């Protein structure tokens, strides 16, 4: 059997938002019983059928790189993480729906991974405003995932989800909100599963099928 082609997807976000639990659920279709802090980076693999059910269907490996979530802005911290950002094909931005700061920090994570935040600039969000020009020429597919949906009181859920919808819009990305301890949120055929599959298809297309000069520079 020929080796499968693969793509590299970074999983970024603050410590404690549930990145390891999410990656385990995506790759093993199981709940992670005893999550621990990720030091450095942990890599797991998901098998994905590109354009499933069509004549173009093909199986790929999706490498999910779970990067440790320290948000320290020290140059040494960023330099240590920078090695994981090489030759990336997609980014999953993970935030805790019960922690507004973890949502705001996604701007910092994304810019760091895309090599836009050359020097520490402190807070990237001012009074809720966001400069979309920072992503005007971004060719890396992004997906925003909010965790701990089960921990939001029903009375506040609409307010929280409205706020995070604007967050995903800023990144020009689709949004998935879930509870990593309940696999039903990613059940086959669900809207979340469809969004996830669409994101992985887009990552694969950017890596293997779109071949203009700029994209080859970024994705080959």
Automatic annotation (TrEMBL):
User: What InterPro entries is this protein classified in?
Assistant: P-loop_NTPase, Sigma_54_int_dom_ATP-bd_1
Keywords recorded for this protein, A-Z: GTP-binding, Nucleotide-binding
Q: Which GO terms describe its molecular function?
A: GTP binding
Pfam families assigned to the protein according to its UniProt record, in alphabetical order: Roc
Keyword GTP-binding appears in the UniProt entry: yes
SUPFAM superfamilies registered for this protein in UniProt: P-loop containing nucleoside triphosphate hydrolases
Instruction: Indicate yes or no for the key word rRNA processing.
Output: no
Similarity comment: family membership: Belongs to the small GTPase superfamily. Rab family.
The UniProt function text for this chain reads:
Required for KRAS signaling regulation and modulation of cell proliferation. Regulator of KRAS prenylation, and probably prenylation of other small GTPases. Required for lymphocyte development and function. Not required for myeloid cell development.
Q: What is this protein called?
A: Rab-like protein 3
Q: Which organism is it from?
A: Rostratula benghalensis
Source lineage: Eukaryota, Metazoa, Chordata, Craniata, Vertebrata
The primary gene name is: Rabl3
């Amino acid at each position: 059997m020929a080796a499968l082609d693969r793509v590299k997807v970074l999983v970024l976000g603050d410590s404690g938002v549930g990145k390891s639990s999410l990656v385990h659920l995506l790759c093993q279709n199981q709940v992670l019983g005893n999550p621990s802090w990720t030091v450095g980076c942990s890599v797991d693999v998901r098998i994905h059928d590109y354009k499933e059910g069509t004549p173009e269907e093909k199986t790929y490996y999706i490498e999910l790189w779970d990067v440790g979530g320290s948000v320290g802005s020290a140059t040494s911290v960023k330099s240590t993480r920078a090695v994981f950002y090489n030759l990336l094909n997609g980014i999953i931005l993970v935030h805790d729906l019960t922690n507004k700061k973890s949502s705001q920090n996604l701007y910092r994570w994304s810019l760091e991974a895309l090599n836009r935040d050359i020097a520490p600039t402190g807070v990237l969000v001012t009074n809720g405003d966001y400069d979309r020009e920072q992503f005007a020429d971004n060719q890396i597919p992004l997906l925003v995932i909010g965790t701990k949906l089960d921990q939001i009181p029903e009375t506040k859920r609409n307010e929280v989800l409205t706020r995070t919808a604007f967050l995903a819009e800023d990144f020009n990305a689709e949004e998935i909100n879930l509870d990593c301890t309940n696999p039903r949120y990613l059940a086959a055929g669900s809207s979340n599963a469809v969004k996830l599959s669409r994101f992985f298809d887009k990552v694969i297309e950017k890596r293997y099928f779109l071949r203009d000069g700029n994209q080859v520079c970024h994705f080959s």
